[in-house]
Amino acid sequence: MKRSAFLYILLLPLILAGCIMLPGEAPALPLPYVSHPEERMFETLTVTRGDIRFEANPFAIYMPARVVSQRFATGGVPVLGIYVAIGDEVSQGDIIAVLDMPEIQNELDELYRRYTRLNLEMDILTERHGLAQRLGSADNAAFLSSQSSMRAEIELLERLLAHIGYQNEERYLRATMDGIITDVATFVEGMVSDSRQAAAVISDQAFSSFVVQGESAELMNPGDRFEMTLANEIYLMEVIDPEEFGFVRDINPGGEGLAEAFLVAVYALAEDTDDPDDPDASAGWMGAATWYTPRQEFDSRGRIHMPLEEVLDVLHIPGSALHENEERRFVYVLENGLRAIRDVETGLEGGGLVEITSGLIEGDLVIQ
């Protein structure tokens, strides 16, 4: 027994090593996965019919029919204040600014007090002489001498009052016409007057006018009407003859280029209308105050919509859907869920649209 047990002890490591060397069971494989390709999505649009308009869109720059600059007659004098701002409406004679000249006002006040006192003394002298005449004790010679002396002094005071009054009036810068303030100097403490620099600019607002330059202006004739986008609104415009409307320039805002610019078509803003094709739709010229927001910078430009060519009720697609390769023009269309190339022929292009003359039919789905 002892020998058998000893033998088993010797064989035990061999038995264990043999167990380790035995092949293990293969691991289980994962379940098979079948992938499906994702369906490709296209952004499409339907080919429809509509109108296409090709137009020029020149800028039109605001230019009032009459512009005047308001300047002080005297330079180097302290300015008491400027009392208008951009966008203010003024009437002829309204005060624009005032110079600080207290000595003139003081002298004028003193002369007026003397003038008032002398007139009062003349009235008293005349009343006393009339009373003396009724009492039979009038001294006509003394009365006439005093009256003559007073009249001479009054006449002198009147001439002085007129002279000082004229000087005092020069303190006030007044509007020389009705209009709207389109430019004004900034008032600061210690500011002095400058006879060469405009303190303010007034523009006639009887009607709003715009000037157009360039090739587009050559296509315009007086009486033509177009739409114009101005201050995010659309207005009806009419081409006018500047000479007929008596345009005047008292300042030179454009330098040498002003004359050249003024020779091209000038636009006047007419009443907004829902029917621009109706020749009687406009109710008259519209002033700048109708579309201009006070206190903003007066630098307004409009965009003219001037149609040059138009086609009606035609097949069209957005220009972004059209592709070109040398002379070939084509689009991608959706057919049975797949993308296909379709050659097309095109016509007028305008407003982001392209006319399709062949290659597509109404209802086709074009891929953007």
Describe the structure.
This protein folds into 4 domains: 44-55 and 310-367, conserved putative lor/sdh protein from methanococcus maripaludis s2 fold (Beta Barrel), CATH 2.40.420.20; 56-67 and 200-307, Beta Barrel (Elongation Factor Tu (Ef-tu), domain 3); 71-98 and 176-199, no CATH class; 102-170. The chain has 6 helices and 22 strands. The chain has helices at 2-21, 102-135, 140-169, 215-218, 257-262, 288-291, and strands at residues 44-46, 48-56, 59-62, 66-70, 79-82, 89-90, 95-99, 172-174, 179-184, 200-203, 209-211, 225-230, 233-240, 248-249, 266-269, 301-318, 323-325, 328-335, 338-343, 345-350, 353-358, 365-367. The strands form 5 sheets. Strands 3-11-15-13-12-16 form a 6-stranded antiparallel beta barrel. The longest helix has 34 residues, at 102-135.
Keywords:
368 residues; alpha+beta; conserved putative lor/sdh protein from methanococcus maripaludis s2 fold; 5-stranded mixed β-sheet; 6 helices; 27% helix
Task: Tell me about the largest β-sheet.
Answer: 6 strands, antiparallel, barrel
Multimeric organization: single chain
Computed over alpha carbons, the radius of gyration is 46 Å
Number of domains: 4
The CATH topology assignment of the largest domain is Elongation Factor Tu (Ef-tu), domain 3
Q: Bin the helical content.
A: 25-40%
Specify the number of helices. Answer: 6
The CATH class of the largest domain, by name, is Mainly Beta
